[in-house]
Amino acid sequence: MAGFTIKGITDDTDRCEHCGTRIRRAVALMPLDADGSEDGDVVYYGTTCASRALGRKTAWVTNQARAAQAKWEQQAERAREWLAAYEPVEFAPVREKFRVFVVERNNTVRPGETVTDAVAGLLASARAILAARI
Question: Between the CA of residue 39 and those of 2, 23, 69, what are the distances in Å?
Fold first, then answer.
């Protein structure tokens, strides 16, 4: 294992997975392999253990975790908007998908892409974003 990347901060757990200490909030860390790719499942460390694991000060870790959490929350909000707009037409005729995708939402289809592919891609992205909740 080559290190960690910070995914966010949560209060869903009350124990540090590194040392077992009771904590108020946990930093969600994703293990990285030697190439820097995500490797494994998210682990939840207290801010002190996370700062030691990352070789950084606790305040820096807390700030980075809050920023990562805010970024995820923005992405999740956008994903929920996509789901609200496009799930009702997911299995509708192409004409209805076109109406929602192009006319109502002012989107354009990329060259070589169909409206059906574009809607399916947005829905898949939205679902992946929400499934990746820390």
Answer: 10, 25, 20
How distant, in Å, are the alpha carbons of 35, 75, 78, 98, 107 from that of 72? Answer: 23, 5, 10, 29, 23
Phi/psi for 49 (5° steps) reads -65, -35
| Sign of the torsion angle spanned by Cα atoms 70, 45, 48, 13 | positive
For residue range 51-102, list pLDDT tens digits in order. 999 999 999 999 999 999 999 999 999 999 999 999 999 999 999 999 999 9
Q: Strands 43-45 and 3-10, how do they pair?
A: unpaired
CB 67 within 8 A of CB 121: no
